[in-house]
Design a protein that fits this description.
heterodimer; A: 206 residues; alpha/beta; 40% helix; B: 288 residues; mainly beta; 3 helices
Chain lengths: 206, 288
């Protein structure tokens, strides 16, 4: 009885693979790592208000610690943007990269869009998923240096109604625990950040 | 009866090392050996899993309960090299069909009359480690190799109430005890790849295990001054190699492993005829 369900999932997987293209990174050639970057507030396409803050913080921390980029601290960035009248990532297109670069005193800007941040609980298939797109732009020329859409997910699938109930409850439990701990989807956020920068050439700060 | 007892004992003895000694010579759709092939620099993953397990069957006369813990630690030094280790301890206790062996006393053959089910106690202790090296890693795919030592120690005791009979003479009731110790040592090595194909990832793998060890059996009839017909023995387990190869298909947007689903389906099928309960509780710590 369970095997046909696996076949259904495999068929869905095959159709996904057939109709959606992958997301490889864009990297300007030759790429010269900027001496300093500012990770800007994210443009939020989800209905989670904590997500953009959590993802931005994780990306900023990881691109500095794992790839050696010198990042401007987020509090200073937000203060500088506030002086320009910007309090949300969705307002960033109203200001040119040149003006942002001059205001923040950095060589490059990292724009982010949060595309997916949440839990999907059906019992038979439960997914924790974070997906975001990042762009690094030269602050002087406005030229695109690097772009990557990254994702991380964790799923459980049930093969029977009883199993679905157990896994659905466990999934809801982990969702509640994440909210109580004020750190929802922590592992997915960290994995997504690494997925984003894994093939980004190292910076020169360390 | 003895045949059925050994048939039940064999999977118990191999339970603790089943992941290492799974005899697979045909292609299998299964999760690859390195479950989380992440090489994020200086990342530490620690996963502690506690488990409670019970298995019973009135038809076979088995009622076994057990529990234990399993610890998996993984540390990546950089984007190329990682170390992983696994240690587990599982204890079990319960009842199952028992047996006893005949013996000689006063030049007379005494045959066993089993009075009740056997009482089973024991533990299993698997231990393994790997050095992982990711030699290829780019947006088109990755290839990693792994190798390391492993060992497994299993000790089981089956105590069966019985009395001996010679002709029409019955001896007092006592306990027949069989102690089994299996120690296996070896190395495993292999390779696995990750190949993105649109929103899927194919993960072919290959793994080899080379093992050797000893198995010892001791028997105690429960009566003093008797001569056993089956002596206690230590058997060398000659070096042997098992090979396994296969692949997994991972649905990337969901990070869902088809191989894991198939394993779940197979596990459900294996439980037919037995009433089984499994509770697990995992704690995952990560520092990166």
């Amino acid at each position: 009885m369970a095997f046909p369900k696996i076949l259904i999932i495999a068929a869905v997987a095959a159709s996904l693979g057939a109709c959606v293209s992958g997301s490889k990174q864009f990297l300007k050639k030759p790429f010269v790592a900027p001496s300093s970057i500012a990770v800007l507030p994210m443009n939020n396409h989800t209905n989670d208000l904590d997500g953009p803050v959590i993802v931005r913080h994780a990306f900023d921390e990881r691109i500095a610690s794992k790839k050696g980029y010198r990042t401007k601290d987020l509090v200073s960035i937000d203060a500088g943007l506030k002086a320009l009248g910007i309090t949300d990532g969705g307002q960033l297109p109203s200001v040119t990269p040149q003006r942002l670069g001059e205001t923040l005193g950095v060589e490059a800007l990292v724009y982010g869009e949060l595309l997916d941040f949440g839990y999907k609980t059906t019992g038979f298939l439960n997914i924790r998923s974070v997906r975001a797109k990042f762009r690094m732009v030269d602050a002087k020329s406005g030229e695109l240096l690097w772009e990557k859409e990254a994702r991380s997910a964790k799923s459980t699938a049930a093969l029977s109604a009883g199993d679905a109930l157990k896994k659905g409850l466990a999934h809801i439990g982990s969702q509640v625990a994440g909210k109580i701990g004020r750190n929802p989807l922590r592992e997915q956020v960290e994995d997504m950040a690494w997925d984003a920068i894994e093939f980004l050439p190292r910076g020169g700060a360390h | 009866m003895r045949k059925s007892v050994f048939a039940l004992l064999l999977p118990l003895v191999t339970l603790g090392v089943s992941t290492v000694y799974a005899q697979q010579s045909n292609f299998q759709l299964a999760p690859p050996p390195i479950a989380y092939p992440y090489f994020e620099p200086r990342r530490t993953d620690l996963k502690l899993t506690g488990a409670y397990y019970s298995m019973s069957s009135t038809e076979v006369g088995v009622d076994i309960k057990g529990g234990g813990a399993n610890l998996i630690v993984r540390r990546s030094a950089n984007e190329r090299v990682a170390l992983d280790g696994q240690f587990g301890f599982f204890g079990l206790t319960g009842e199952m069909p028992g047996f006893a062996l005949p013996f000689i006393f006063s030049n007379t053959l005494w045959s066993p009359i089993v009075e009740d089910k056997g009482s089973l106690t024991g533990f299993m202790m698997p231990l393994s480690g790997n050095l992982e090296a990711q030699l290829i890693n780019n947006p088109n795919g990755n290839l990693l190799f792994f190798a390391g030592p492993n060992m497994a120690l299993t000790m089981l005791t089956l105590a069966t109430p019985y009395h001996a009979r010679a002709g029409v003479t019955d001896a007092d009731s006592t306990i027949f005890t069989m102690n089994t110790t299996v120690a296996l040592f070896g190395v495993q090595f292999g390779a696995q790849a990750g190949i993105p194909v649109a929103k899927l990832k194919l993960a072919p793998f290959f793994m080899a295990n080379m093992e050797s060890g000893t198995a010892s059996f001791t028997f105690n009839h429960g009566y003093s001054g008797v001569r056993s017909l089956v002596t206690s023995s230590v058997v060398d387990i000659e070096p042997f190699t098992t090979l396994s190869y296969g692949a997994d298909i991972i649905i990337v947007p969901w990070n869902l492993s088809i191989g894991t689903l198939l394993q779940q389906a197979a596990a459900n099928g294996e439980q037919q005829g037995f009433k089984t309960t499994l509770f697990t509780l995992s704690w995952h710590f990560r520092r990166s």
